[in-house]
């Protein structure tokens, strides 16, 4: 060694430096390997284990002490809470019975409306008698303004009072109001006559409401176009937007007016169908599509020389007319091209053969069949084809639409319709399209009308009513989901005096009146059934935490379900009302999009067939806006709702869902026990609130008072309950009155309507209220006299408070109570701009933190489940709270247990992080962070990054405040993948079949128009037409032609003076709101740049909630479409972290993750008594880490799989009612006529020109 040193020292300085560099360079890989091994060797695995243990112990005992966990659990035990077995089959039977009774009341109500309407229509009135009615658009609801002070004498005073049962909308229960669409002439004789006789319905409306206080809007939609609705309310309109609501286009009207149908639409795309004819034809097809519903089947064929499907996917088939398929048709209509010569023979034969095949094979609707022929003229009547394919049974009706004004082309098309039980119309302008299309519906209804006695009621699928449309003040949800029941109203007269316009010598029109056999549909009677009224009869507390109910119709579509998500960023999704049951229940075996799991499809078939069902399935359930996932087994039970196409189902978790906690305080005994005192004493400590959506007690009729909170109502009813003669009245529903009841029996059955009787007509859920009292007594522990510090000392726990602000408990009965920590609340809650955490998260068993705590109990009975807001990094750090919750179970043994409550605390995140740093910045073997400890590896070292992750991989705490709430994979994707490979986390794939994808819409520049003069002329023509229609609508001058006719017109909020573009840009996508007042349908702008029928332009709300304005701005420039998305979520595998019953560190290393060959060792340790893991990662090696996020991505379907998805039809059950034939229908000779407009007057022409000139000057 000495020799070597001498030799080394003898080198010159240059040689010395050169040799050092050479040796270091040559030994670099070896040194790097030593470096990597050293750092691997020095990873503080033992320290990480000790840190995790100390953090877990401290926060566990502190949280237990603050939340008074043991006190509350002891109170449940000493209060003699017991377990009862949940009989799911019996439970669903009871719930179904209640729902069935409620539904029967609705059916009876519409039947009474129907009977009175049919009788009233036979009354004879003098035409000159004035008609007394309340016009919904001409009401003066303010009593301060006298009638004589109103400028417009058409307005009438009517007292309107806000009613909570009708969403706070001001109403009048004494009368109904009438809505007449702008496109209907209110003074036309047939309209006036129908308004007059339908006035008799008011007494029926009132009687129905007295019999059933849960009734929502009742209405009669007349075939003449008006709507009579009860109770009376003001129809809210925008002054700039004409009122376009037409009851005849609502689904409840169309479904009740005719039986299901198979329909083939033949669209002529020959060379003559250009320009305006093409636009009119497209609008005819669009309006026909608007009249279809989910029980109908349809296809559209373009025909010229050849006949081809409009949508190539729908090759040689009929598809269900759901919103997604209708959307495909509408998109394809934008791409049609006209060319060559029309071959009618091929088109008609194609249509007949397709319909015959479906009829014989048992596919489609198996009811009505129709061909809709849209053309500008036919060269022949093709009698041979009709005689071959349709005579003598006339299975297929033929409806013909002649586009254009040429009278000579009417004869053949009129013959086709009349010879095949159809109807012929001539459409000459865009303005009359809707009215002419609607004429086919009464023709389809003729067999039903002729049978008279068969009034089959229908139930619609779910749809969204636009809350606030009728003037609801301050309604925030925007939409109300509902279904409707409706029944057709028939004209009992078998003949009518018909006035016809007859063309003589092809040049002169004459009017002729004659009596003819008819079968007229007077209209449709109906009522709405809000989904919330159904859910009230299926109380969630009976199902327990993580249990839920759902309803499915005969098409397998969901009426309601906890995973039905109809709204995407304040707009209705394009196919929100055709979400299949198989799309909301995700089985645990589903590893590819739309995999047909046999167990799920069998359950779905039972629901569709309305069979009693009991099944078990393993499912994946996503939480927290699809960021967390739970896997569990669930038991399903289902029963038929008699008299409807619906099945009611419930799902309950296997395990703790088998049992429920039974603990009640008998109110009558409590009152008699003088030692007990006032029952409200059980609510004496802490703050408390009740589940805002649950019904504990409610008045059935007194609904004009201010909306009382559940807390105020329970206070009022508990005060009443302590007085003599108290009755529970806990029967939610009762069967409707028996038709064979005599007058005395019916009088006893019918509720009294005096003011005193109304106040005594209430409902109280006895089980729920008495369970609430039990829970209130068990949780009555948050007294300010009890010092938390004393509780901590009693448990030998360090008194260090790491930022606990609130202790709380929520129970199975919907009770939430809490107490704030004085030492923290003074600095946080007092100055906070945010509402108190517990006042926002007051839904007890429906809160995510409640559900997660109960689910995690199986993993670790002592664990608190921690979470932070996902957007914590964007919030004020002083406002961010950590939530920690732990479930309380009542247990009899290892198998019989059920959750009773969840306790928890909220912690200031900033102080929680300080505590985390304080523990991980020092060695566990040293009492403080001294110099000797710094030599060891701690999280304070720059070479180590430390994180606390929850059981789904989200960062609860780290050294960087900006990491809070983020998914760990977005920061350390490679480490996250290693944790999956090490089985620390499990990767679970979730599919979203209700997703919305946004396609960018390119906005054309003005320069493109300058280079395309044809487009400019096209826009100018559209602009002129728009002005014409606008004047017609605003002035109602269209009635000058014929007061008995009312023409539809192009609808939509369209500015004729707007700059020309190829497409219309919508603020939130092109949507239309309709219902019984409304249901959503997507429309497409036509090529001329004019919005199509029913298009509305909703404004952006002032308050956009939690959605960033940047994202909404992006949506404004996009078009939403339904799509499938998928995402991988993560779940902690706690059992994999145990060795011999103890949690041990998982040691890992990313080897050779950089070009220099270095690696990144890491250590993972479970934090005891929590759902957290502590992850320490060596940060010295600059490894490249790819991002792993949990944002859903679209499932890419190729053309084949996309077509298969659209064509895939799960099992469905056809409606029981089908009336498509009557032997005497051939005696009715009415089969259509001309629809052309008469000559315009000089005054009208002058007015139109003046308006156009003024518009040009202004622009």
From TrEMBL:
It is a single-pass type I membrane protein. InterPro entries: Ca_channel_alpha-2/delta, VDCC_a2/dsu, VWA_N, VWF_A, vWFA_dom_sf. GO terms for molecular function: metal ion binding; voltage-gated calcium channel activity. Residues 262-441 form the VWFA domain. Keywords: Calcium, Calcium channel, Calcium transport, Disulfide bond, Glycoprotein, Ion channel, Ion transport, Membrane, Metal-binding, Signal, Transmembrane, Transmembrane helix, Transport, Voltage-gated channel. It comes from the Eukaryota. It holds the Pfam family VGCC_alpha2. It is found in: Membrane. Residues 727-756 are annotated as: Disordered. GO terms for cellular component: voltage-gated calcium channel complex. PANTHER family: STOLID, ISOFORM H, VOLTAGE-DEPENDENT CALCIUM CHANNEL SUBUNIT ALPHA-2/DELTA-RELATED. This is VWFA domain-containing protein. It comes from Scylla paramamosain.
């Amino acid at each position: 060694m000495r020799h070597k040193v001498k030799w080394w020292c003898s080198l010159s300085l240059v040689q010395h430096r050169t040799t050092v560099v050479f040796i270091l360079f040559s030994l670099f890989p070896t040194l790097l390997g030593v470096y990597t091994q050293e750092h691997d060797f020095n990873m503080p695995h033992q320290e990480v284990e000790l840190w995790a243990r100390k953090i877990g112990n401290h926060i566990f005992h502190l949280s237990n002490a603050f939340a008074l966990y043991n006190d509350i659990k002891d109170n449940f035990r000493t209060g003699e809470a017991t377990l009862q077995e949940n009989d799911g089959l019996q439970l669903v039977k009871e719930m179904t019975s209640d729902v069935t009774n409620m539904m029967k009341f609705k059916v009876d109500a519409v039947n009474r409306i129907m009977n009175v309407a049919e009788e009233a229509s036979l009354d004879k009135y003098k035409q000159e008698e004035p008609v007394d009615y309340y016009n919904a658009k001409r009401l003066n609801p303010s009593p301060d303004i006298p009638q004589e002070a109103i400028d417009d004498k058409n307005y009438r005073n009517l007292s309107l009072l806000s009613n909570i049962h009708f969403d706070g909308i001001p109403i009048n229960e004494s009368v109904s109001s009438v809505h007449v669409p702008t496109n209907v002439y209110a003074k036309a004789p047939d309209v006036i006559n129908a308004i007059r006789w339908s006035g008799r319905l008011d007494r029926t409306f009132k009687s129905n409401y007295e019999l059933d206080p849960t009734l929502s809007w009742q209405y009669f939609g007349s075939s003449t176009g008006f709507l009579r609705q009860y109770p009376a309310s003001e129809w809210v309109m925008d002054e700039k937007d004409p009122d376009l609501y037409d009851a005849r286009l609502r689904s409840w009207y169309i479904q009740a007016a005719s039986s299901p149908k198979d329909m083939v639409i033949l669209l002529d795309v020959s060379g003559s169908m250009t320009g305006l004819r093409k636009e009119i034809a497209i609008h005819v097809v669009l309006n026909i599509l608007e009249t279809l519903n989910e029980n109908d089947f349809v296809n559209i064929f373009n025909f010229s020389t050849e006949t081809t499907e409009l949508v190539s996917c729908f090759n040689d088939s009929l598809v269900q007319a759901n919103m997604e398929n209708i959307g495909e048709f509408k998109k394809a209509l934008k791409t049609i091209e006209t060319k060559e010569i029309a071959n009618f023979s091929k088109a008609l034969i194609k249509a007949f053969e397709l319909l015959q095949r479906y009829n014989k094979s048992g596919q489609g609707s198996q009811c009505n069949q129709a061909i809709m022929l849209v053309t500008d003229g036919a060269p022949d009547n093709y009698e041979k084809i009709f005689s071959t394919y349709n005579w003598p049974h006339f299975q297929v009706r033929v409806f013909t639409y002649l586009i254009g004004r040429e009278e000579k082309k009417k004869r053949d098309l009129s013959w086709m319709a009349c010879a095949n039980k159809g109807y012929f119309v001539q459409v000459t302008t865009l303005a009359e399209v809707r009215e002419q299309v609607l004429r086919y519906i009464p023709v389809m209804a003729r067999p039903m009308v002729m049978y008279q006695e068969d009034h089959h009621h229908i139930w619609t699928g779910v749809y969204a009513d636009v809350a606030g449309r009728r003037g609801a003040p301050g309604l925030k949800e925007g939409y109300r989901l509902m279904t409707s029941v409706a029944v057709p109203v028939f004209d009992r007269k078998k003949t009518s005096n018909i006035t016809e316009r007859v063309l003589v010598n092809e040049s002169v029109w004459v009017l002729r009146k004659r009596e003819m056999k008819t079968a007229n549909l007077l209209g449709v009677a109906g009522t709405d059934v809000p989904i919330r009224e159904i859910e009230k009869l299926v109380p969630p507390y009976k199902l327990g935490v993580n249990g839920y109910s759902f309803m499915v119709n005969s098409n397998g579509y969901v009426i309601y379900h906890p995973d039905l998500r109809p709204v995407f960023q304040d707009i209705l999704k394009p196919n929100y009302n055709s979400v299949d049951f198989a799309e909301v229940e995700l089985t645990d075996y589903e590893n590819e999009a739309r995999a047909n799991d046999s167990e799920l499809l069998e359950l779905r078939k039972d629901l569709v067939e309305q069979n009693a069902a009991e099944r078990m399935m393993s499912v994946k359930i996503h939480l927290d806006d699809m960021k967390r996932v739970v896997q569990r087994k669930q038991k399903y039970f289902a029963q038929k709702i008699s008299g409807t196409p619906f099945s009611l189902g419930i799902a309950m978790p296997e395990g703790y869902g088998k049992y429920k906690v039974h603990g009640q305080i008998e109110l009558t005994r409590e009152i008699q026990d003088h030692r007990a005192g006032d029952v409200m004493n059980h609510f004496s400590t802490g703050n408390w609130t009740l589940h805002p959506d649950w019904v504990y007690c409610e008045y059935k009729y007194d609904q004009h008072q201010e909306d009382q909170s559940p807390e105020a109502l329970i206070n009022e009813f508990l005060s009443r309950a302590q007085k003599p003669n108290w009755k529970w009245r806990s029967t939610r529903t009762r069967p409707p009155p028996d038709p064979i009841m005599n007058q005395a029996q019916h009088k006893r059955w019918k509720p009294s309507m005096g003011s005193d009787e109304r106040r005594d007509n209430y409902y109280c859920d006895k089980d729920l209220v008495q369970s609430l009292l039990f829970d209130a007594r068990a949780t009555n522990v948050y007294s300010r006299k009890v010092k938390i510090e004393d509780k901590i000392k009693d448990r030998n726990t360090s008194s260090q408070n790491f930022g606990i602000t609130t202790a709380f408990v929520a129970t199975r009965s919907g009770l939430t109570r809490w107490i704030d920590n004085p030492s923290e609340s003074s600095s946080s809650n007092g100055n906070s701009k945010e509402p108190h955490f517990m006042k926002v998260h007051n839904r007890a068993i429906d809160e995510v933190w409640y559900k997660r705590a109960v689910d995690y109990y199986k993993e670790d009975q002592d664990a608190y489940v921690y979470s932070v807001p996902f957007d914590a990094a964007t919030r004020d750090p002083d406002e961010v709270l950590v939530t920690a919750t732990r479930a309380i179970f009542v247990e009899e043994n290892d198998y019989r247990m059920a959750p009773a409550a969840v306790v928890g605390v909220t912690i200031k995140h900033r102080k929680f992080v300080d505590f985390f740093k304080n523990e991980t910045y020092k060695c566990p073997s040293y009492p403080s962070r001294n110099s000797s400890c710094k030599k060891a590896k701690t999280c304070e070292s720059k070479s180590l990054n430390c994180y606390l992750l929850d059981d789904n991989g989200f960062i609860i705490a780290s050294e960087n405040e900006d990491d809070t709430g983020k998914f760990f994979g977005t920061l350390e994707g490679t480490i996250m993948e290693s944790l999956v490979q090490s089985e620390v986390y499990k990767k679970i794939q979730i599919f979203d079949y209700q997703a919305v994808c946004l396609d960018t819409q390119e906005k054309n520049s003005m320069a493109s128009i300058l280079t395309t003069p044809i487009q400019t002329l096209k826009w100018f023509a559209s602009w002129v037409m728009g002005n014409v229609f606008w004047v017609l609508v605003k002035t109602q001058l269209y009635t000058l032609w014929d007061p008995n006719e009312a023409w539809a017109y192009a609808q939509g909020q369209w500015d004729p003076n707007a700059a020309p573009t190829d497409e219309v840009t919508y603020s939130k996508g092109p949507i239309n709101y309709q219902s019984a007042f409304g249901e959503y349908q997507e429309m497409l702008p036509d090529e001329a740049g004019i919005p199509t029928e029913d298009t509305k332009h909703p404004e952006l709300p002032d308050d956009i909630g939690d959605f960033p304005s940047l994202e909404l701005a992006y949506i404004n420039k996009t078009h939403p479409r339904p799509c499938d998305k998928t995402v991988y979520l993560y779940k902690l595998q706690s059992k994999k972290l145990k060795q011999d019953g103890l949690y041990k560190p998982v040691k890992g290393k990313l080897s050779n993750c950089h070009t220099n060959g270095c690696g990144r060792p890491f250590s993972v340790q479970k934090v005891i008594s929590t759902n957290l893991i502590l992850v320490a990662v060596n940060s010295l090696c600059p490894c490249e880490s790819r991002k792993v996020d949990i944002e859903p991505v679209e499932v890419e379907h190729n053309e084949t799989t996309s077509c298969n998805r659209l064509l895939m039809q799960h099992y469905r059950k056809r409606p029981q009612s089908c009336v498509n034939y009557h032997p005497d229908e051939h005696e009715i000779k009415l089969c259509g006529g001309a629809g052309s407009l008469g000559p315009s007057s000089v005054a009208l022409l002058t007015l139109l020109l003046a308006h156009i000139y003024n518009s040009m000057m202004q622009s």
